[in-house]
Amino acid sequence: MTRVPNLPNxxxxxxxGLTLLALALLLAWDATGGDLALARLAGTPMGFPWRDNxxxxxxxxxxxxxxxxxxxIALFAGIRWPPGVLRRLPVRARAQLAFTxxxxxxxxSLLKHASHTSCPWDLKEFGGxxxxxxxxxxxxxxxxxxxxxxAGHASAAFAYAGGYFVLRRVSxxxxxxxxxxxxxxxxxxGLSQQLRGAHxxxxxxxxxxxxxxxxFAIDLxxxxxxxxxxxxxxxxxHAGP
Length: 241
What we know:
- The chain has one domain.
- It has 8 helices and 2 strands.
- It has helices spanning 10-32, 34-42, 54-80, 91-114, 155-158, 163-167, 172-196, 201-222; strands spanning 2-3, 228-229.
- α1 (10-32) runs antiparallel to α8, α3 (54-80) packs antiparallel against α7 and α4 packs antiparallel against α8.
- The chain starts with a strand and ends in a 12-residue tail after the last strand.
């Protein structure tokens, strides 16, 4: 047996390129100032009319959050009792999936805790007290309550995006469906919060990117690698008769 180097996975190289492209597009969006323009579509000088909408509050916010935590519990239970496509994953991969979701949520929560960015509904323009300050202006207080960047609620769905890296080992189709469901649900949750004035579009988009990067990073560390291969048989030279 001989040890062979762990060469970069071509698939990971492509995904890394797409991740950097997404980062560039996000930075470009931040530079356009489009957050306020979109917030003005839902907000008024008196506030956000949809802020206390029963469907947005009870279904899209409270129920969605509770459902997400039930899924987290189910994923951890699935390490021992896997349903569906999870049965095709080894125990280590099922654990990676569950912890990827949990760590993605934790990462977003820690960033929110450190952020001084306030929500749209806190802005003076929409009846609040805060001034608009870029979320990149670290340690610059806008006069509001802060703690609004990135979008914590959207992470209830985007946190599952990292499952793509685990599922692609056994079913590329299931991995794509899982990823699309996570992104679609996260975008829906983010838009519902934007209608309420709870977040800007950039908050939602950065949450998606961060959750993806967390899942990618965990997979780079935890993914199984073939470290040993059978040694090649030495060539045998036969003397002529």
